[in-house]
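dude i think i finally got it to work??
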Amino acid sequence: MSLTPPRVALLHPGAMGAAVGQQAAGKARVLWLPEGRSAATAARADAAGLQPASDMTALVHGADVVISLCPPQVADQIAADVLAAGFHHGLYLDANALTPERMAAVGNRFTETAVRVVDGSVIGPPPTRPETTRLYLAGAPEDTAIVAGLFSGSDLDVLPISDRIGAASALKTAQAVFQKASRALAGLAHALADHYGVADVLTEEGRRYNRPILAEPDFLPTVAARAWRWSPEMTEAATALHAAGLPDTMIRGAEEIFEAWAACRDTPPDDTGTLFTRLRQAAEQGTNSFRAR
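look at this
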């Protein structure tokens, strides 16, 4: 059996990429591409123990695994560049925050090659200590096992969840709907409270919240039972935001969701599937209304 460490090409060592690369560096030779990158990126790569490559061709030549971990808007271009540079064998791990549909499109770029694509998503901060960050994987079990092996014993927890490309991306997208949007909502709430001089009181009220809402989907039917009352509250909140010179789009969206559930007035449905169906119907009706205008 060969004792040569796996060769990993990493694009690119931003804050997350450098930390992930460092976790793999204990088991693999991890290379990166300095061309066109900033001095800050170079410093991160050096601190993480990553080795520079002269150009894209040199980076991917002989690579066992290519990891794409970059802003989602450039994920398609990264895949195209890697393919054009001659990466036609090995594993391509796309760990960007993409929709399942975009992930499938990235995978389709490699269909005429021997490249095996793995769908990945990172949830958590840059991994610097145990039990903070997870890399979820979707793809053929033998391929996800190879990726998991790169990080065994490291501070990055790797969890294969499906053999279906797009599943890991779907998880990341769904998690971001709550995790990222809730931060935006917090900013909006504090901006409104600040406008009316009650920011300190809102902060104190927030300290009383301790329920892990995302971990309680069975709670949603009781939310739907109250939606008929909450929708008008969102109308009032949106009006207040507009009066304060603040964006009201997210709250109008919440109003729309509660309107879709308003028919459940005081009667929680038996399952969450009914609620999800109502949301899809509301979205379809909204699309049809838009098309009719």
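Residues 287-293 have pLDDT under 50 and may be disordered.
im so relieved honestly
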